[in-house]
Amino acid sequence: MRKPFVYALLVFCSLLFIAPLFWAVTTALKSQTELYLFPPKWIPSVWKFSNFAEAWTVQPFNVFLRNTVVVTLMSTLGQLISCALVAYGFARFAFKGRDFLFLVVLATMMIPWEVTMIPQYMEFNYLGWINTLKPLIVPSWFGSAYFIFLLRQFILTIPRELDEAATIDGASKMGIFARIIVPLMGPSLILVAVFQMMNCWNDYLGPLIFLNDQMKYTLTLGLSQFKGMYGVDMQSIMAITVLISIPPLAVFFFAQRFIVGGIAGTGIKG
């Protein structure tokens, strides 16, 4: 009886997580008359797929989507390059103060972003970056402490004999990094990319602080404005919410095996 009980428990927990998403999808497809029925009607009588197109055209969501894609791609690229290089330096180079600097990097994870929010705003305002996408992109090119730690731990699991063999063949340090370390770091790099993409795609506080022009808004900020203007139009709000949720769900679904592999392969060495 143990296995059926475990499966039943897993199915029940899965339904708890799926129910809100299912409700959002069915609400987006309902007509106005079925929206506020009591008891609530889970399956609409008529599936109105036109709700998605109508809700998308009310606001310039095409512009919001373009801004979000630009921020997400550039931020993810910046995190991959900067974190991989810094992690490689901490894992493979021996220099004075290395361990202390690594502890300093890890200590920054204990500082919440809300503490540095005002100094960052003052800095970006001095640079003239307010109401541009630069505050949402440029900081990612200076690395993240969590991702640096994650990639460093993975590099420490790679045998140094590979580096020594490449050095004998005449490879430079950057050659070793590009030809040996980076290919072996594939699962961990995909893990970093997925996490960073989801963080950027769902970021609301950053765009809210640094952006003023509607044509610079991201999807999360556009959805917030849409909810403020159409607070009672629940089907349109749900339609936009479902459309915005599709890309991160799809990325997570297709990359979940790499996520598990990246975490399992990180190890605890060092």
UniProtKB/TrEMBL annotation:
Residues 65-255 form the ABC transmembrane type-1 domain. It is a multi-pass membrane protein. PANTHER family: ABC TRANSPORTER PERMEASE PROTEIN MG189-RELATED, ABC TRANSPORTER PERMEASE PROTEIN MG189-RELATED-RELATED. One of its GO terms (biological process) is transmembrane transport. Its main location: membrane. Belongs to the binding-protein-dependent transport system permease family. This is Carbohydrate ABC transporter permease. PROSITE patterns: ABC_TM1. The chain crosses the membrane at residues 69-88, 100-118, 138-155, 176-198, 236-255. Signal peptide: none annotated. Keywords: Cell membrane, Membrane, Transmembrane, Transmembrane helix, Transport. It is found in: Cell membrane. One of its GO terms (cellular component) is plasma membrane. The lineage of its organism: Bacteria, Bacillati, Bacillota, Bacilli, Bacillales.
